[in-house]
Structure formats: C-alpha cells, structure tokens
Write a structure and sequence with these properties.
Number of helices: 1
Structural class: mainly beta
Number of domains: 1
Order of helices and strands: EEEEEEEH
Shape: globular
Strand order of the largest sheet: 2-3-4-5
Radius of gyration: 13 Å
C-alpha cells in the first residue's frame, strides 16, 4: 500500500520509517541557494544507501537506482504547482508518496 511521507517545516531533518516491512532513515534537506528539496535514504543502521535525490514533481525519484538494500518501490512527488518550493509541503501543494513495487507494476 502506498504511503504518504510526512515532510516537516524544517530545512534539515531525518526520521525513521517502515517501508516494505523494513526500517529506513530518510533525511530531507532544503537547498536555499538553488531552492530545491533533496532526500537521502539510509538503512536502519544509518548506512547510506542513496543520497541527495532532488525532489521533482510527477517523476519516479529512485527507479533508476538499482542498489542492494533500497526499498523495492519508488518515491514520487505529486504537486498542484509548477515548482516545488520551500513551503510546498507545508502548504499542502505537494505530497511525497512511496509506492510499493506491486503498485508500480499494477499501473505499468
């Protein structure tokens, strides 16, 4: 089942989350110079698996990375605006979603 990833009004934070029955640590950073969000994925031991993925709207964010230990599904950002800003998640103009591998296969 897809899961909405909770983003906070904080330019640098991390938290643990269950995805595909495993615990991962997601870290979110807002780049104030270039004005975009990125996120990184670590395993439960804080071993970095993938870093600084730019969050863009309506595009699979981790699909192209075939790295052992990554969640099998993919992250996507749905947005009602043309650009994702510092406040897009806080203002509910954008939502980051994790879709399981089965959900992705069902829509392809």
């Amino acid at each position: 089942m897809s899961k909405v990833i909770p983003l906070k009004d904080n330019a640098n934070y991390k938290f643990s989350i269950q995805l595909d029955s495993k615990t991962y640590i997601l870290q979110f950073l807002y780049n104030t110079v270039n004005t975009y969000w990125t996120f990184s994925i670590s395993d439960e031991n804080e071993t970095l698996l993938l870093s600084n993925i730019k969050i863009v709207k309506n595009f699979p964010l981790t699909d192209k990375y075939k790295i052992e230990g990554l969640p099998a599904g993919d992250f996507m950002c749905a947005s009602t605006t043309d650009r994702i800003t510092r406040d897009s998640f806080k203002n509910k103009e954008a939502t980051l979603i994790y879709m399981t591998e089965a959900e992705i296969e069902a829509i392809q």
